[in-house]
Design goal:
This protein has about 525 residues and is of the alpha/beta class. It has 3 domains: about 120 residues, 2-Layer Sandwich (Nucleotidyltransferase, domain 5), CATH 3.30.420; about 190 residues, 2-Layer Sandwich (Nucleotidyltransferase, domain 5); about 190 residues, Hypothetical protein af1432. The chain has 18 helices and 16 strands. Strands 10-9-8-11-13-12 form a 6-stranded mixed β-sheet, sandwiched between helices. Strands 5-4-3-6-7 form a 5-stranded mixed β-sheet, with helices on both faces. A 3-stranded mixed β-sheet has the order 14-15-16. A hairpin with a 6-residue loop joins strand 4 and strand 5. It is elongated, with a radius of gyration of 26 Å.
């Protein structure tokens, strides 16, 4: 193995002894990937927290597992594809010091009998040492990466990563993995075994599913006993399946994003109807995914069946992101959404004092309403707080219509820890916190009117942008049905001393009435 005597020397790209740029090379059984991340330190109440933001990425569909012969030797074409990819990666990493790069190889190079010969040439092409990691270590790193990118979860999280030659199953809590298992089933090996030449029929799909289920059964009892609140699919196969299901409208009506059991079944029927993967006509199907699609699908169907999963979130964060965080040496953070919000506040130059005023006021108002029926009050207070913290990020683009810019950023930006649903709800609050309400009424967007009411009222009450104490303000629903409207009660003496707020509240009442909701202001 190639080793560098300077591997432990500090990089020239350092900041407070922390590398500014880090790189991970993931030599998977299907694809080789390079990810370069920038380390950002974010001050928090409990001290600095680190985040890694992707700045560059390369992917090469090497299909290393496809070059594994029956007697477990890598053939020459597969070796050449791998070396060529690593040489290109090495060119990109030319200015990186050894302490900034970590390269790992997974299942195919765990089992290949000539792996050591290949690795000598591979390290020379890449220019950095390569580690062949064990299945459980791969699982640990996958969970580390997924947990930094997946939606926040109260309780245990199940992460499933279907790779080219193996599938990892991890249950963890927060950023700490608890149960880890790696099974020798992957999208490349499964496709070669059950769907040669890309042919797909009922019998082949059934046999592929049963084979996957037999492998998964060894962990079912232990994993079900541990339990989980959230199921997450990470990396290429899960992401490819989710994209196909979403883009082709195969999920059921209650799941806009992610993977559902019904979505998988509809995708299976589409493949069987086509009879061969080369004849499948699906929106979003990428050419390099065609040869491994039926194998990955059959394994995921087995996962859903054996672990009794109905819906699965999907994250891009996986092995390579976990390698970066492991290289950084810091894996214990606050809620990643809190870190992300703080990072966005710094990035967009938010007036923190004003954001804090609006956040405290909005959360105080929301707390006066009855607890939500199907959600946790703590979750709604947190989301409202993040919306208040970010409501002015659009001002970095333009003051005119800044709330629209704020919503656009929240919709389209990479926000670690936030799910697509989280970002959509956040963007709706940012869009609706100021201006006309008609843009939300009847739009089909999910709107929590109590949260929006609290944010808009806080925005009005804090408009002076000063730390003047507010009086006792009481808010209530006009009826149990959220669509009825709201009542705001304020002291008359205070409102007489603040005519601008009185005028703003009258305008606010008119705005709510335009969308069919009553808004009653009472002065005691």
């Amino acid at each position: 193995m190639l080793r560098n005597a300077n591997a432990n020397l500090p990089s020239k790209h350092t900041m407070n002894n922390t590398p500014r740029l880090l790189a991970a090379v993931d030599m998977g059984s299907n694809s080789f990937r390079l990810m370069i991340g920038r380390v950002d330190e974010t001050p928090t109440a409990n001290g600095p927290a680190s985040q890694i933001f992707q700045v560059d990425a390369l992917r090469e569909p090497v299909r290393l597992a496809a070059g594994l012969t029956p007697d477990k030797y890598l053939d020459q074409p597969a070796r050449r594809r791998g070396i060529d990819a690593l040489r290109r990666f090495g060119d990109r990493l030319r200015e990186f010091a050894p302490g900034q790069v970590r390269a790992v190889a997974t299942n195919t190079l765990r089992v290949a009998k000539n792996a050591s010969e290949f690795l000598i040439e591979a390290e020379g092409a890449l220019g950095f040492p390569i580690e062949v990691i064990a299945g459980r270590e791969e699982a640990r790193l996958i969970y580390l990466g997924a947990s930094h990118d997946a939606p926040a979860c109260q309780g245990n999280r199940l992460v499933v990563d279907i790779g080219g030659g193996s599938t990892e199953f991890i249950i963890g809590n927060g950023y700490q993995s608890k149960l880890m298992e790696s099974l020798y089933i992957g999208c490349v090996s499964h496709s070669r075994q059950f769907f040669p030449s890309g042919n797909v029929d009922d019998y082949a799909m059934k046999q592929a599913e049963l084979a996957a289920r037999r492998e998964i059964q060894v962990l079912v009892r232990q994993y079900r006993a541990a339990g989980w609140e959230q199921a997450v699919g990470s990396s290429g196969t899960a992401r490819a399946l989710a994209e196909l299901i979403e883009l082709n409208g195969m999920n059921d009506s209650n799941a806009e994003h992610g993977i559902t059991r019904e979505g998988l079944e509809r995708l299976k029927r589409a493949l069987i109807k086509a009879e061969n993967t080369n004849r499948v006509k699906l929106t979003g199907l990428k050419p390099d995914r065609i040869p491994v699609l039926p194998g990955g699908l059959s394994i995921m169907l087995g996962v859903f069946a054996e672990l009794d999963i109905e819906r699965m979130d999907v994250t891009d964060g996986a092995l390579r992101l976990g390698v970066l965080y492991d290289l950084l040496g810091r894996s214990h953070h606050e809620d990643m959404r809190t870190v992300t919000v703080d990072q966005f506040m710094r990035r967009y130059g938010v007036d923190r004092a004003q954001a804090s005023r609006v956040r405290r006021t909005a959360q105080t108002l929301l707390s006066q309403f009855p607890d939500p029926a199907n959600e946790r009050r703590e979750d709604n207070l947190a989301l409202l707080g993040w919306a208040a913290s970010l409501h002015e990020i659009g001002m970095s683009i333009s003051h005119s219509g800044y709330h629209k810019h704020s919503a656009y950023i929240a919709t389209h930006a990479d926000m670690p820890g936030f799910s697509k649903t989280d970002q959509a709800r956040l963007a709706t609050l940012l869009l609706g916190h100021a201006g006309k309400l008609g843009k939300l009424s009847g739009s089909g967007k999910f709107v929590d009117w109590r949260m929006l009411f609290s944010l808009r009222l806080a925005f009005v009450l804090c408009r002076r942008r000063s730390d003047v104490a507010l009086p006792d303000i009481r808010v209530t629903q006009l009826a149990e049905a959220l669509d009825e409207g709201f009542t705001v009660r304020l002291p008359k003496a205070w409102i007489d001393a603040n005519p601008l707020i009185e005028y703003s509240l009258a305008q606010e009442a008119d705005e709510w009435q335009r969308i069919g909701k009553r808004y009653k202001v009472v002065y005691d």
